[in-house]
Amino acid sequence: MMKPKSIAAAFASCFLIISLLCSCISGDQNETNYEGLSYNYYEKTCPRLEEIVRSSISPMFALDPTAPAALLRLMFHDCQVQGCDASILIEPSGDQQFTELDSAKNFGIRKRELIGSIKTSLEVECPQQVSCSDLIILAAREAVALTGGPLIAVPLGRKDSLSTPSKHMADSELPPSTADVDSILNLFAGIDMTIEESVAIMGSHSIGVTHCNNVLSRFDNENATSANMDPRFQTFLRVVCPEFSPTSKTAEATFVPNDQTSLIFDTAYYDDSIAGRGNLRIDSEIGVDPRTRPFVEAFAADQDRFFNAFSSAFVKLSSYKVLTGNNGVVRSVCDKVD
């Protein structure tokens, strides 16, 4: 039988272990991390921030069901070029030519004005506090949650850039529509993502559409066309996206849904990938490549696992090359440099 002192010591040890475990689990939500960002950054300076963002965005989603995909894409394209700094919102000034918005890879970027509208509301509530770059991340977070995906806890505190990258930089850093598994894994490895997280972040294609100019470029490469493509689906794509030039106005104006439930953030994208119904080369190839297929199958079978991996990947992408402290500014108007 244990003596009273031994029992007390045992309880004390157990309490210490439990306390340490709890602090590890909850610490990410309270301490500064990810390049100087913090989960409670606006707790005192703008406590209603997330409520205001959500109330601003929800009505827009009801009016335009395609808005969530547009906001998620806006975040991706901002973060992948020069980091998450809201440079994609800046309108070119008179002496600037060929900025990142002029890149063909930024074709179809929308809802930039919605970020500006939210910023205007926040300037009344808490002036000169909330950055446009944080608003892009929060809007994308809401886009995922309001379409059925997870509500992701994201660290905040980004600052805005004072310049917009060149068209050349956007051309070189944004992946092409013909990207394969190797290039996508290399891209996301540069953001410290695992293969599982890389496959999960591709699940952003669960919502939205693919424009025919990007689908047609796939047919230029017969090997890329035939890799894991259901012949019936290939016929469908060729009917919806006839053989116009990929740069024609018709090809730019027509589109196909990303998956069978393109307004809902779910695992249907992975079901389609396995079945050879991917719009883009990467959508099809991740379903057969031995490095990525196990995760595609796992996500198709387990939505919770997909949501967890996607959330982790989302935080990593949204924390990429951020500006913090005195390295950036808080713009008062998102589309102009003060």
Any overview of this molecule?
It catalyses: 2 a phenolic donor + H2O2 = 2 a phenolic radical donor + 2 H2O. It comes from Brassica rapa subsp. trilocularis. With 338 residues, the protein is mainly α. The chain contains 16 helices and four strands. It has helices at 4-30, 49-63, 67-80, 112-125, 132-146, 167-173, 181-189, 195-201, 212-218, 222-226, 231-240, 249-253, 268-274, 281-285, 293-301, 303-318, and strands at 32-33, 37-38, 209-211, 255-257. It has a two-stranded antiparallel sheet. A two-stranded antiparallel ribbon has the order 3-4. Strand 1 (32-33) and strand 2 form a beta hairpin.
Please give a handful of descriptors for the protein shown.
mainly alpha, two-stranded antiparallel sheet, 16 helices, calcium
In short:
With 338 residues, this protein is an all-alpha fold. The chain has 16 helices and four strands.
> How far from one another are the termini?
74 Å
Q: Considering DSSP H and I runs of 4 or more, what fraction of the residues is helical?
A: 40-55%
Total helix count?
Answer: 16
Question: Which stretches of 5+ consecutive residues score pLDDT under 50?
Answer: 1-33
* Spatial arrangement of strands, main beta sheet: 1-2
Secondary structure category: mainly alpha
The string of secondary-structure elements, in order, is HEEHHHHHHHEHHHHEHHHH
Question: How are the SSEs placed, and which strands pair?
Answer:
Elements (H helix, E strand, L loop, with lengths): L3 H27 L1 E2 L3 E2 L10 H15 L3 H14 L31 H14 L6 H15 L20 H7 L7 H9 L5 H7 L7 E3 H7 L3 H5 L4 H10 L8 H5 L1 E3 L10 H7 L6 H5 L7 H9 L1 H16 L20
Antiparallel strand pairs: 1-2, 3-4
Helix pairs in contact: 2-4, 2-5, 3-5, 4-5, 7-8, 8-16, 13-15, 15-16
